[in-house]
Amino acid sequence: MNRVTARTHAMQLIYEWEMGGEGGEETRLNLLGAKPGEEEYAYMERIFQGVVENVEALDRRIEENARGWKLERLSKVDLAILRLAAYEMSLGQIAQNVIITEAVEMARLYSSEKSPQFIHGVLGGISRGAAQ
What we know:
With 132 residues, the protein is mainly alpha-helical. Helix content is 74%, strand content 0%. α1 runs parallel beside α3 (39-53) and α5 (76-91) packs antiparallel against α6 (96-110).
């Protein structure tokens, strides 16, 4: 399975959902070219649903670690990346440094010039808080 691709598409679904879309079936199929039941599709779906179901708790953790920033001020792409990574970190199935590295790389590809450093800082804070 290509987890990086599935994760990137999950971030795009989260972004669409945040912008008022439904993250519908057509979007899912167009993103991955995968069909329900295939590993990438299943992983993307699990992550997306997990974020939607836990968005309030995830947002609290993000805001606690985004020193001086309110969620409303964050770009929607950055917020989608942070929600995805914070959710994956909460699962404890993948090393946190891997999640952070991949989130920073997503920020490099899809967001602004300063976003990778910001994403790294917020997720580092979440990671340190989880270790306590």
